[in-house]
Design a protein that fits this description.
With about 400 residues, the protein is mainly β. The chain has two domains: about 90 residues, Immunoglobulin-like, CATH 2.60.40; about 280 residues, paralog of FGE (formylglycine-generating enzyme). The chain contains three helices and 23 strands. The strands form six sheets. Strands 1, 2, 3, 6, 7, 8 and 10 form a seven-stranded antiparallel sheet that branches. A hairpin with a 2-residue loop joins β15 and β16. About 45% of the residues are buried.
């Protein structure tokens, strides 16, 4: 049987903002366009000219927008699916721009072209500016695993608060109905306290669920598929605009609030119960609250003695509880300190334990310092560890 003929090149409007454009390719190479695909990404969608030449699909933008980033994406379904990046992003130059993808004749596949818009901070996030900073021990402290090093990080967004039990529950409920079926219930003293008793693996899946719930591109994949369940260590897509864990470098840059050479996020070498929820003992590491133990306001009822998020003043970047309350998971495997001069360091490629930062309600003042490094297993759950989310600033 002769295959059906291929239609002539499809000319579509140059730009629209009403809904996604998807082009589906069948085994017989029938090509069509539709405007009723589910809007999974909030980025601007571009309707290109499509041609099939040889073994490739050619998508042409006429003309491109100079300086803006174009990205070709695909999905195997129009409704309920996740759009995956196909190839590298291309920068527009004001002239015609052609993006090419291999022709896949053995499967149904939908394509779209997106024009990236810079991510905007919402009220719950602070923009952490790009630049170099010095991380590691300060003020005469002697942490052997945290020598002073200078690293550079790109701009990113950091959550102003640790993730609360109420937010965890809201996303978990949505996730359970959308393929995220093994997220732990977690714990929390009340809805406005930070969530605890969830592990690192739960968190990366939860971040993906929240990204999809908010129509953002999920960060974490396993074998190219969005991670929804399981315990396989995922691959991060650092350019995705969804929610993720901060790297260790990002966490410390955010904690220091743009200040240098001081122990604590508010820019001093001292700490007291007026500034953070920690275990006060003696006068070591600048503890100014004496030897009174747990925070007297929050040590009520049964442990854990967490405090509601935002109970203490923010640092210069507008971030609360970067010292005390709960340790916070980071992306990195725990390993040797970063090399000085590194740009966007992301830790070791492999390991057995993940970095936690910031101290908690049950740890001494020394653990609340911006430089302190600690770790736990990615499958471990405790009442001492929570997290906050970050987002990449893209493009």
């Amino acid at each position: 049987m002769n295959p059906p003929s291929v239609p002539s090149p499809l000319q579509l409007p140059s730009l629209h903002r009403l809904g996604p454009l998807a082009v589906a390719l069948f085994a017989a190479l029938t090509v069509f366009a539709t405007a009723d695909a589910e809007p999974i990404s909030p980025r601007e969608l571009v309707a290109p000219k499509l041609q099939i030449i040889g073994g490739n699909l050619l998508f042409t933008v006429q003309p491109s927008v100079a300086g803006r980033t174009y990205l070709l994406q695909y999905s195997d379904t129009l409704t309920g699916g996740t759009w995956q990046d196909l190839g590298s992003a291309v920068i527009g130059n004001g002239s015609n721009l052609v993006l090419t993808a291999p022709r896949t004749s053995d499967a149904r596949r939908y394509f779209r072209l997106v024009l990236d818009a810079p991510t905007e901070a919402t009220e719950e996030f602070s923009l952490i500016p790009a630049g170099a900073f010095t991380m590691g021990r300060t003020s005469g402290d002697n942490d052997f695993d945290a020598p002073p090093v200078t690293v550079t990080v790109s701009a990113f967004f950091m959550g102003k608060y640790e993730v609360t039990k109420a937010l965890w529950d809201d996303v978990r409920k949505w996730g359970d109905a959308n393929g995220y079926t093994d997220l732990k219930v977690g714990g929390g003293k009340s809805g406005n306290h930070p969530v605890h008793s969830i592990n690192w693996l739960d968190i990366v899946k939860w971040c993906n669920a929240r990204s999809q719930k908010d129509e953002l591109t999920p960060v974490y994949t396993v074998n190219g598929v969005v991670m929804r369940t399981g315990t396989t260590i995922p691959v991060p897509g650092w350019k995705a605009n969804g929610y993720r864990l901060p790297t260790e470098a990002e966490w410390e840059k955010a904690a220091r609030g743009g200040l240098t050479g001081k122990r604590y996020p508010w820019g001093t070498d001292n700490i007291s119960h007026n500034q953070a929820n920690y275990f006060a003992s003696a006068a070591a590491f600048g503890n100014m609250s004496g030897d009174i133990g747990y925070h007297p306001i929050y040590a009520t009822g049964s442990a854990p003695y967490t405090s509601p998020v935002g109970s203490f003043a923010a640092n210069a970047y507008g971030l609360h509880d970067m010292a005390g309350n709960l340790w916070e998971w980071c992306w990195d495997w725990f390993g040797a300190p970063y090399a000085s001069g590194t740009i966007d360091p992301r830790g070791a490629a492999t390991g057995s334990v993940r970095v936690i930062r910031g101290g908690s309600w049950s740890y001494h003042a020394q653990s609340s310092r911006s430089a302190i490094r600690d770790y736990d297993g990615p499958g471990k759950t405790t009442v001492y560890i929570g997290f906050r989310v970050a987002r990449s600033s893209v493009p």
